[in-house]
Design a protein that fits this description.
- The complex is a heterodimer of chains A (53) and B (535).
- In chain A, a hairpin with a 2-residue loop joins strand 1 and strand 2 (11-17).
- Chain A is elongated, with a radius of gyration of 14 Å.
- Helix content of chain A is 38%, strand content 26%.
- Chain A contains 1 helix and 2 strands, in the order E-E-H.
- Chain A has a two-stranded antiparallel ribbon.
- Chain A is of the alpha+beta class and 53 residues long.
- Chain B has 535 residues and is an all-beta fold.
- Among the domains of chain B are: 248-378, no CATH class; 386-535, no CATH class.
- In chain B, the strands form 8 sheets. Chain B has a 20-stranded parallel β-sheet that branches. Chain B has an 18-stranded parallel β-sheet that branches.
- Residues 519-535 of chain B have low confidence and may be disordered.
- Classes of the chains: A alpha+beta (53), B mainly beta (535).
- Chain A binds chain B through residues 1, 3, 5, 10-18, 35, 38-39, 42-44, 46-47, 49-53, and chain B through 151-153, 161, 163, 180-184, 198, 200-201, 203, 205, 220-222, 224, 226-228, 242-244, 246, 264-266, 268, 270, 296, 298.
């Protein structure tokens, strides 16, 4: 596995990629941004509470 | 599917027909279970050791009632079926590096019922494929829990269910799985070694608890827990490893030995209308690194209660810094507690417009006190005491009136105001210990100015040589054991510094100091008054 640490707007995370991931730097940057966007959206718009048990 | 029962036979190796039967306790000689068979161990399997001399694939594995040992060595067992694929037993022993791999790639649900085994007898599970739900039965225990295929960050692609589950080893999510919403906690309970937690951006909408004396858990990426869920540190070390931990509520409230290691990471608390953070009893708690907790709820509902330390507070060791970054609700700091920093600005980025209130009792702040201009500062008689005993801490009023008593009481600490300090007209600014530096070139306003105690404290300006003005509208502000420098006292009150315990350190105005006794004139021992003289 390849680990790529990143920080976006104070959000600190890490991508774990296969050794032979074959991704370009641009694609990796998109993945970082997607991780941040997902987190930011969860912070700003937490889903309603629906317990399954 | 054929059943194959383990019976005591010859060598004890898995890959030997001398140990398998078609019936429980039956005659040996049946074929070794293969990928179309179920392997079963039970009370009739004896108490010997079954040794994995190969890494077999079977449909399911059942250990109910087995009192012997399953010796994995470095081999693994793959289970390729669905429904309940593994049933463990608290009566059995495992040795080696026990790992079971779930390989079914269908969308059919699977269940692991590993039972409440001990840490030593726990088994690791890897789920490499499948999109059906995966349930780990309530109170079942696992060692490592890995949802990847071992090569890529992907693997299991379904929804992880579960009751109260204890994990003794590492935890690794896949990027294509999800976690359903559950009230039951995922408990990390290792008692030795460093265990890793990789969440692959999966939001875990269930509580997380870290509770293992001697255990340590290190994040491998950001961890996000649901906005109504609690992350609890009960015992052991939780190492954020510089990453962001997001949770609805954070709690570490007990007397166990435990460490919360931030590194450069932080905790983001998203919950609201509840006690969203508590370290009420911090005995045994050590906090290292950033010590930063942000409160990000952006709505207006309810009160977010933040409970600092009432028992076991140690400056520099177990006090957290609190940053309110959003919301228009109420932030209430529980009273009679100790805290690190109160920061409502977050370096100017906070959008908090709600109300800050304090519950009854003096709150000790060992860090900075930073307000923002858009918030509402509640009023009350509860004291905020600045208590740092080293370094320089910042007080930023942001043009807010602090309509509560403010006490400077940190022997060895310096408290620098970054702007004019304004207290309510009935509120006292009290100096007991430490150095208060009012902002140079500004006018700070107090209801009264009081000193207590018999150690020398210091009233200064943030810029040596430039006065800072302090204003009180009426009455007499009598001080003792106070060194005054670069201070312009004004507003209408009498600023009585005539006690011989005071020091006129220069560049003052408006203060009444005792003149030196020159042995004549007014008379030996008499009192003269002067303005700005140094004795």
């Amino acid at each position: 596995m390849v680990k790529i640490d990143f920080i976006i707007n104070g959000f600190s995370d890490c991508l774990h990629l296969a050794d032979d991931h074959g991704l370009t730097d641009a694609e990796i940057e998109v993945m970082k941004q997607a991780r941040y966007d997902k987190w930011r959206d969860y912070i700003d718009n937490p889903p309603p509470v629906v317990d399954e048990e | 599917m054929a059943n194959r029962y383990w019976v005591t036979g010859g060598t004890g190796n898995w890959n030997s027909t001398t140990n398998w039967s078609t019936a429980s306790g039956g005659a040996s000689g049946a074929s070794v279970p293969g990928s179309s068979d179920a392997a079963l161990f039970d009370a009739s399997s004896g108490s010997g050791t079954a040794t994995l001399d190969i890494s077999p694939t079977v449909q399911t594995l059942t250990m109910t009632g087995f009192t012997g040992t399953l010796a994995f060595g470095t081999n693994t067992i793959s289970l390729n079926s669905t429904a309940v694929v593994f049933t463990g037993a608290t009566t059995m022993t495992v040795t080696g590096t026990p790992q079971i791999i779930l390989t079914n790639s269908s969308g059919t649900a699977r269940t692991i019922s590993s039972q409440a085994v001990t840490e030593a007898n726990s088994i690791s599970f890897r789920i490499t494929a499948g999109t059906g739900t995966l349930t780990i039965s309530t109170n079942s225990v696992v060692r490592d829990l890995d949802f990847t295929d071992g090569v890529n960050p992907t693997g299991y692609g379904g929804a992880f269910q579960g009751g109260v589950n204890n994990v003794y080893g590492n935890f690794k999510a896949s990027t294509n799985m999800t976690q359903g919403a559950f009230n039951n906690a995922l408990n990390f309970v290792a008692t030795s070694g460093v265990k890793t937690i990789t969440t692959a951006a999966v939001v875990f909408d269930r509580p997380f608890t870290f509770n293992g004396v001697g255990g340590s858990w290190q994040l491998q990426d950001a961890l996000t827990i649901g906005a109504t869920r609690t992350c609890t540190l009960t015992a052991g070390t939780l190492d954020l490893n510089n990453f962001t931990l997001t949770t609805g509520i954070f709690s570490s409230n007990n007397s166990n030995t435990r460490t919360l290691a931030f590194g450069t990471g932080k905790i983001v608390v998203t919950g609201n209308n509840a006690t969203v953070c508590t370290t009420n009893t911090a005995t045994g708690l050590t906090v290292t690194g950033n010590k930063r907790i942000e409160f990000s709820y952006s709505g207006s509902t309810g009160t977010r209660v933040i409970t600092g330390v009432s028992t076991g507070a140690i400056e520099g060791t177990n006090l957290l810094d609190f940053y309110v970054t959003a919301g228009s609700d109420i932030i209430n700091f529980s009273g009679s507690r100790s805290y690190g920093t109160f920061d409502f600005s977050n370096a100017g980025t906070s959008t908090f417009t709600g109300t800050w209130s304090n519950a009854s009792g003096t709150n000790n702040v060992y860090g900075n006190l930073i307000l923002n201009s858009a918030m509402v500062v509640g009023s009350g008689a509860e004291i905020i005491a600045m208590r740092a005993t080293s370094g320089t801490k910042t007080i930023t009023s942001a043009a807010q009136t602090m309509d509560f008593p403010l006490t400077i009481n940190g022997l060895g600490g310096t408290f620098a105001c970054s702007d004019a300090l304004t207290l309510g007209s009935t509120r006292a600014l009290t100096m007991t210990n430490g150095t208060l530096q009012l902002a140079a070139g500004t006018t700070s306003t107090v209801g009264s100015f009081v000193t207590t105690g018999t150690t020398l404290k210091y009233l200064q300006s943030t810029t040596p040589g430039t006065q800072a003005t302090i204003s009180d509208a009426s009455g007499t502000d009598t001080v003792t054991y106070l060194s005054v420098q670069d201070s312009n006292a004004t507003g209408g009150a009498t600023w009585d510094a005539t006690s011989t315990t005071n020091v006129n350190a220069g560049n003052n105005a408006g203060w009444v100091f005792r003149m030196p006794d020159f042995g004549g004139g007014v008379g030996s021992g008499g009192t003269c008054f002067g303005f700005g003289f140094r004795i």
